[in-house]
Amino acid sequence: MSIYTKTGDKGQTVLYNGRSVSKADVQIDAYGSVDELTCFLGLIISKVKKEDKIFLTEVQKDLYIIMGFLAGKKTSLVNLETRINYFEQSIDKITLKLPKLNRFILTQGSELSSWFHVLRAVCRRAEREVVRFFKSKKGLYKNQYVLVIKYLNRLSDLFFTLARLYNKEKELII
Question: How many domains, in total, are found in the chain?
Answer without folding.
Answer: 1
